[in-house]
Amino acid sequence: GPIRLDVNAAWDLAAHDLSIVDYWLGAGALTASAVGAAYINRGVQDVVFATLRYPNDVLVNLKASWLNPRKGRDITVVGDRRMLTFDDMNLQEPIRVYDKGVTDEKVAGVVDTFASFRASVRDGDITIPKVPGGEPLKAQCDHFLDCVEKKQQPLADAALGTRVVRGLEAIQRSLAAGGQEERV
Question: pTM of the predicted model, to two decimals?
Answer without folding.
Answer: 0.83
